[in-house]
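User: What would this chain look like folded?
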Amino acid sequence: MKAVVQDRFGPPEQVLRVTDVDRPEPGPGEVLVRLRATSVNTPDWIAVAGVPYVLRLSARAKGAVRGTDVAGTVEALGAGVSGFAVGDAVIGTKWGSGFPTAGTFAEYTVTRADRLIPKPEGIGFADAAASVMSGMTAHAAVAEVFAAGPGQRILVNGASGGVGTFAVQIARHRGAEVTAVCGPANLDLVRGLGAARAIDYTATDFTAGPDRYDAILDNVLNHPPRRVLRALASGGVYLPNSIGNSGGLLAGLAKMAGATLLGAAGRADVRSVDGGFTPERLTAVADLVASGAVRPVIDRTYPLEETPAAVARMYSHRARGNIVITMGE
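Assistant: Here's the prediction, encoded as structure tokens.
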């Protein structure tokens, strides 16, 4: 089968190559999926680029196949698998503990059966792939960790990215008033997704303004956490969700740690966002997409052969919404 294999850490277009590898076989409790689409997420560019550098200690590079989001059809079942049949359309994930080295940037992948759900008929494979990690992370943030609802004001920093575009829509669907922070080229996009107010971060510093919010989902961490806390209303919740894009030894990990320490010291209600897979969480996202309440925003779609360019696009931090890779018919 065709797969995109990593040779070392570095720029995606220099360290990723398309080649032939053996098709995996499902073990007990596993499912072989013929992939129709996947998407590029933050863990993918981190694992390819090897930044922050400290993460190179836990992510093997040579020979790795990256990618975590699964959207495709069941090709074969391992021993003991029930609830699925060959030919079923499924969505799910390979994201668990650590960076996958036999991932979804390939024509086929094997994943645990308990990390898949049936794909709703009303969702195409590209939209399904875009909804997995980004959708689950956004849902965890604004529907679970902070349960947005009527009468609440939530600010989403980095609102035009993969997680941000889902978070704006989910929070708005739940009745919250959403303020979206993004670059000037994406202001109309986030307004169209339901944001009551859109802030151009190049012109306005939301941490210095008079407005206060019941929750701030920070997908960028481009401000020191102490400054961000100034924009919280009394009893507000800060949701840091980024390692930053500065590279180096630690990148934004220091800011994440700083935010956590502020919470531990009682300076604010700081909560971590774990967007990991649960069947209930992915089903909730899929149902929102299938109903039309939420739409995945796709920046660009690339064929499998152009995966290095897709990861480079993600690494540029310029994508509007999600980046999808398709495997054809």
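The first strand starts at residue 2 and ends at 6. If you want, I can go into more detail on any region.
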